[in-house]
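I hope you will forgive my troubling you with a question about protein structure. Could you please explain, in whatever detail you think fit, how the structure tokens follow from the sequence? Thank you for your consideration; the sequence and its tokens are set out here.
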Amino acid sequence: MNIDQLKSWIGKTAEASDLVTPRLVASYEATFAPHLAPYPQGEAPLALHWCLAPPIAPMAALGEDGHPAKGGFLPPIPLPRRMWAGGTIETIAPLQTGDEVTRRSHIADIAYKEGRSGPLCFVAVDHELVTPRGVALRERHNIVYRQAAQPGTEPASPAPAEPRPADLTWTVEASPVLLFRYSALTFNGHRIHYDQPFVTGVEGYAGLVVHGPIQATLIMNIIATLSGGEPIRLDYRGLAPLIAGEPFVVKAKRLPDGAIAAWTEGADGRVRMEGVSR
């Protein structure tokens, strides 16, 4: 399928609903505490929305990587490796325990680019999350697809970087249990997060990969902690895979213009995901 045929998916829509149950809130807290911004009783913790209404496909409808096979809502991109590339999140009103939340999604853009390691295809999906009180959150989610790992094509690991100074720093254990729990919370079957032989032998990574939304969740929460819980508009992007097995840090720093920058650093000091809230 060529790019013009893929672009026919632009404008495609989907809708799904879910409940913010006490069990989901408790499971989410148990997974991320103490690295959550304070929030009033009865409200849902920040970034819990990524656990709502996940795609649910029968086992026979999964691709080799454990995701639902492409060609349903998402277009049949002819590149096998899928990662979070980043996005934009605008929080408008908090979710509350007991809310029924409807997510309305549409494919906003599809673009091919040539990267240093081969062809890339970016799919931008816009989401709007609505509660009985109105719109609670708007999001642009950017997904990137890459070609299969080729022997000798993966770049060598850069030298360790000098860690960047911050006003607030959290240290997080990137354990397989954290990855497993988050995969369970989000009904995410992507094998790069739990299947060591697959992620190293097929996908070509050095180890289990920490979920993009785990990092984005921590970035959102550290920003809200530093800002005192103000509503945020976050622009964020992934820079490199974060491999599990060693602690990583989440940092936030106030900028001269009043914005707050936040990012994750691996054990080598290199930034893996970064964002700015204005």
The mean pLDDT is 92.
